[in-house]
Specification:
10 helices; 9 strands; elongated
Length: 253
Amino acid sequence: MLSQNFLTDPAVVESFVRAARPGPDDLVVEVGAGRGHLTRALAGAAGRVVAYEVDPGLAADLAATCRTLPNVTCRIEDFLLARPPRGPFALAGNIPWAMTAAVVDWCLAAPTLTAATLLTQWEYARKRTGGYGRWSRLTVLTWPSFEWRLAGRVPRTAFRPVPRVDAGVLRLERRPRPLLPSTALPAYERLVGIGFGGAGGSLYASLRRHHPVGRLDAAFRAVRLDRATVVADVWPEQWLTLFRLLHAPTRRH
């Protein structure tokens, strides 16, 4: 087994499926299906489920579970090498925690993904959703297109074997309407890259190298940011406002 902690608490399984919100017409891709504990619950709520498990040692148990579920397709292969479905789909899974970053990257790159609900380490889920009052580069970078939300905490005793730390339910939802037009995204991403570049010790110092001081001062006043504010303390909504103010056309008299 590939260092996976299996979710065995029936109440937590039910709570996780509620957080994933699959509907009777929905396609759900499950990553890290294991022996099928979560697969069975997802199959009861979704229209179709495609369950991925890379560990061949779990293949027999998962296949036995899938044989009793006519709306489930079982795939014993590496999910990270799979192509996303052509039509809209949601993703759900209790993934090996060492794979979290790779699975999240796969989700963000999947053009037809509508939402992903993942069990991750508690610290990771809080970090990505601003739970420590600080925001990560990845969250800020993708905020115009995706909402990151913490949907619950799962005690470590809900897993077997029991891990050292609790888990978090991370909910990643594609926005029906992005907060910025697609043509503006490259410029927004450049702004975020500059801000998280670390030059000068504060967001203001980093941006000052690329924007007129007068305009930058006005933008910081508008979003009520102090010049000494470090980049991780800036909320995604403040980033969007800064971008709009710094990249708005300059009026000519």
